[in-house]
From TrEMBL:
It comes from the Bacteria. Transmembrane segments: none annotated. It comes from Streptomyces ardesiacus. It holds the Pfam family Lactamase_B. Residues 32-197 form the Metallo-beta-lactamase domain. CDD domains: metallo-hydrolase-like_MBL-fold. Gene3D superfamilies: Ribonuclease Z/Hydroxyacylglutathione hydrolase-like. This is MBL fold metallo-hydrolase.
Amino acid sequence: MTYSGEVTVGGPADVHELKDLMITKVAVGPMNNNAYLLRCRATDEQLLIDAANDAHTLLGTIGDDGIASVVTTHRHGDHWQALAEVVAATGARTHAGRYDAEGIPVPTDVLVDDGDTVRVGQVELTARHLVGHTPGSVVLVYDDPHGHPHLFTGDCLFPGGVGNTHKDPKAFASLIHDVETKIFDVLPDETWVYPGHGADTTLGAERPHLPEWRARGW
C-alpha cells in the first residue's frame, strides 16, 4: 500500500518502505503526537523518534526486536511521556539535543549537536540544531542514497508554518532563520517532512510560503 502519513490515535500505523530503511509512523496521546520507528533493512536495528505517549502502543509497534536507541526531538513534555517506560523495557540509549537534555526527566546518554551523525544499523541520519521552539530542538535528516531526503522535524516545521514560538519575536526570528538556512537552503523540494504532530508534507509544498510566514511572524 502507498504511504500517506495519515494516522490517528488508536488507529493503525503507516509504513513508508524505502530501499534501506523502513519508517513506521504512529499517532499517540491526547495531543496527537507522532512517533516514528526507523528500521535498518540490512541489520534490523531499530531507532525510535519521540517516545511521546502510550508506551503500550509504542512497545507493540517496536515488537520483540526492541530498539537500540530513542531520540527525543525536544524538551516539551508531550514528546517524552512514554520515554521512561520505553527505555526501561528496551534498554535503549537515549539521545537529545545538548541544550534541551536538562529539560527531559529521563537521563540523556548521548548529547546531540548540530551536524552530529545518529545511526540506526547501517543507516546514517544527520542532526541539525534549530533554535526557537525550544533552545535545543533537533531535527534529523536521512539523505536517502536511492532517492530524496527524509526530514524528521519534531515541532520545528509543520505543514503551514514553523513551530510555536509563543509570540516571542526573537524566538520566531531565530527559528525561521534556522529553518531557512539549515533546511530550505540545503535540501531539495522533494524532501519528505515528518512532523511531530499531524500530516506529513514536502519542502516543495511549503517553500513558496516562507515569505508569508516571515510577514505574519509565526
